[in-house]
Amino acid sequence: MDTPIKRYFFAVVVGTSLAVSCQQRETLPVTTRVIAVESSALFKHGVTLRVDAIRDSRCPTNAECIWAGNAQVMFTASKGAHQAQDTLCLGCDPKAGSYKPEKTRVTLGAEGYRVTLIDVRPYPSAAAPEARPRAVIRVERQ
Length: 142
Fold this sequence. Notes:
By secondary structure, this protein is an alpha+beta fold. Helices cover about 15% and strands about 45% of the residues.
């Protein structure tokens, strides 16, 4: 039996649940994000990170390669009027040249942050067409 009171009660419960879940989502501290090329994301402590470019030369699945390759992510971190640019790399040997490892420290104003490249997705595949690459990045205050 559908009555106006039941419909009203249902609307109040659903509306309250949505409001609470949205409010909780906004207040949760976020330290890890998945960011596409030429996109940016806001992290905990007000740091914005933009992925400027991704160069992925990792050996594709279902392929035979001479070397494993690497994935490099060029980024710009900013907070307020302060900016820092750097490059992170999965599979790079920092001793073999100017390549950065998968972690680096950036300074924005008087504050330091550790930026970590966790993954570059999707992993290259010889059987699948190229997809828009995305970097999985963590930003933590030091």
